[in-house]
Design brief:
Elements: E1 6-16, E2 21-31, H1 37-49, E3 55-57, E4 69-72, E5 78-84, H2 89-98, E6 99-106, H3 110-119, E7 129-134, H4 138-143, E8 149-157, E9 160-165, E10 168-173, E11 175-179
Parallel strand pairs: 1-8, 5-6, 6-7
Antiparallel strand pairs: 1-2, 3-4, 4-5, 7-11, 8-9, 9-10
């Protein structure tokens, strides 16, 4: 018998001064049995950085045809495809063909750098792809905030991101942009 996903509940308050987006989200997150707290919290961070009323968590690890998150329009067209981790370049190129925008948040510091180097040239032609790499230690710090029921705040201002909870010090989120979309 397969092990079932663990359900986490998060009340997430977002104050994104750069996009003028201020909202509270009640989120249900299914953590796959093979998923770590780090990965789950990076998915939650990806939600906060791209928050929208139509952004939703997907099957991700459970289904190869779905991302970790996506935003679709009312007709079902995929406006934004969001991945977390270090996916295969074929998966990213396929996503770039299916969605208007593809956004990837790699984490694990040096491991992410080693993953990126051999595939960066293959992804140059992906004009709608954004790739970020979280600074070393950020995912581990976010994992310390993980609880089955969470109340978190995310503040985004002047290029800085902070994620915190009432009973923990806030985590400063830093990253490097590895690839930006082609603005032509």
């Amino acid at each position: 018998m397969a092990i079932k996903s663990t359900i986490y509940k998060a009340e997430l308050q977002i104050a994104d001064m750069e996009r003028h987006y201020y909202a509270d989200h009640a989120l249900t997150i299914a953590r796959h049995p093979s998923e770590t707290d780090e990965r789950m919290m990076v998915r939650l961070l990806a939600f906060a950085l791209n928050a929208d009323e139509r952004l939703e968590f997907c099957k991700g690890l459970s289904d190869v045809d779905e991302p970790d998150l996506w935003r679709r329009d009312l007709t079902g067209r995929i406006e934004q495809w969001i991945e977390v981790g270090q996916p295969d370049e074929r998966r990213l190129l396929k996503a770039c063909g299916r969605a208007d925008q593809v956004w990837l948040c790699a984490y694990s510091g040096r491991v992410a750098d080693l993953w990126w180097q051999p595939i960066r040239g293959k992804l140059d032609r992906a004009r709608n792809l954004t790739v970020l790499s979280l600074a070393d230690g950020v995912a581990a710090s976010l994992a310390t905030l993980a609880q089955r029921t969470m109340r978190l705040q995310c503040t985004i201002q002047d290029g800085q991101v902070w994620v915190g909870a009432a009973d923990a010090d806030p985590v400063a989120v830093e990253w490097t942009v590895l690839k930006e979309p082609d603005r032509r």
